[in-house]
Amino acid sequence: MLSIGDFARLGQVSPRMLRHYDEIGLLRPEQVDPASGYRYYGANQLARLHRLLALRDLGFGLDQIGPALDEDLTIDQLRGMLRMRRAQIEASLAEEQARLRRVEAHLRALERSDRMDLRDIVIKQTQPIRIAEATGTAPGFGHENLGPVFDRLLPVVLDHLRRARVRPRISVAHYDPPGEDGTLTVHAGFDIGDQDVPESGDVRVVELPRIQVASVVRRGSIETVVSTYEALARWIEDTGYRTIGRSRELYHERPTEEPERHVTELQMPIAE
């Protein structure tokens, strides 16, 4: 019989780890001194310990290792376990490679600009959002082009909601891809949740679906939003994603007299 210390040295594990394996039932000692509680192991248990450590080294969880130790696995069963583990490792590698691309993209973004909000670009799944909106056309991007369109569309939607006795939530905008002449179709309105809103010739109700986006929250006047969009587009390209569909803007806070306190979330739909 081997003392717990000697057995630990043979197996190159700590006595503490052996006590843990005993407590969870993976590797019981052959004998326990009833007076002192000291554990003793048989040399034949070294094979079980080696199998345990080998499976642990391959990344199997302790809940998976237990059945593998207690049952006589067939070659096919072991092959199935290893194939599943290989798939898990490959998925993990892909995730880490994608994370590395995002780290590198953040570094490049910081090298191009000292804007702090560019550090906080995240990839996420949006929630579906139901909005009442009006539509107009702008000659292109930029506050000088979009500002007058928003000033015209949002009061139309607000008046419609007021007459329908509906309380608007945050304002939302989304855009169709630019036309060949550079013009931009603008959809601007308000989140209405599940409130009942009739449509009119100027206002319609649409639901923007759940999508995957690259998102950044910026603080300050919307007048400088174009540079943030450009940085966000470069970040998406650097990370190996591509943009798809309509970009969205969520105006979480928009105090009329204090543009420096605006809080705007820019969302660009992306795919691998």
User: What number is the mean pLDDT?
Assistant: 86
Under the CATH scheme, the architecture of the largest domain is Alpha-Beta Barrel
Largest sheet, in brief, is:
9 strands, antiparallel
CATH topology of the largest domain: Multidrug-efflux Transporter 1 Regulator Bmrr, Chain A
The count of strands amounts to: 12
Which spans have pLDDT < 50 for at least 5 consecutive residues? none
- Would you tell me the structural class of the helices and strands? alpha+beta
What radius of gyration results from the CA coordinates?
Answer: 30 Å
Query: What spatial form do the alpha-carbon principal axes imply?
Result: elongated
Helix tally equals: 7
Instruction: Output the CATH class name of the largest domain.
Output: Alpha Beta
State the end-to-end distance. Answer: 58 Å
Order of helices and strands: EHHEEHHHEEHEEEEHEEE
Give me some keywords for this one.
alpha+beta, Multidrug-efflux Transporter Regulator, Chain: A, Domain 2, 3-stranded antiparallel beta sheet, 9-stranded antiparallel beta sheet, Multidrug-efflux Transporter 1 Regulator Bmrr, Chain A, single chain, 272 residues, 7 helices
